[in-house]
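Q: My labmate handed me this sequence with no annotations at all. I'd like to see what the chain might look like in three dimensions before we decide whether it's worth expressing. Could you predict it?
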Amino acid sequence: TRTIRRPEHKTHTDDIFEAMAICRSAFGGLDLQYIETLTGLSFEQVIEKLDGYIFREPDIAFSEDGKNDKYLGWKTKEEYLSGNVLEKLESAQYYRMRLDNFDDGHSEEEKENLKAYLDKNIKELEQVQPKKLVASEIQVRCGATWIENDDYVNFIKETLNLQRYDKVEII
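A: Here is what I predict for the chain of 171 residues:
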């Protein structure tokens, strides 16, 4: 006979990485308060032990909500270092520059901590930047949906040396 039981949820672990896996399984992302509960560690200890495995989004960290809630904006390394990494790098560099050039009301100790965290983000993001392509390395198939119809019309007119008044229709 088969017995279907409710899944058992762990309520404690001493392994920070197991706690992170349990958290991701339960919530689909990071919840540092839940990891604190699972491990019995403080926020600072969790951050220290997961250093290099989690990152905080600068746009969220420097927002009003992020300034008031240290738990907001944390992502796993895989999540943070994927997607639009160029935009993320520009954001991190922008906030790093702001710390050097503007008084955002942070104490000197806070500034140094923020600079260190942003420097880490920038270093990691620089390592995952995609190679810049030159025009000859880009291939486009006819019918690509991201190309506007007007671009096809202009290409056909230019290639076939048609006059301005010749009508070209894309169906």
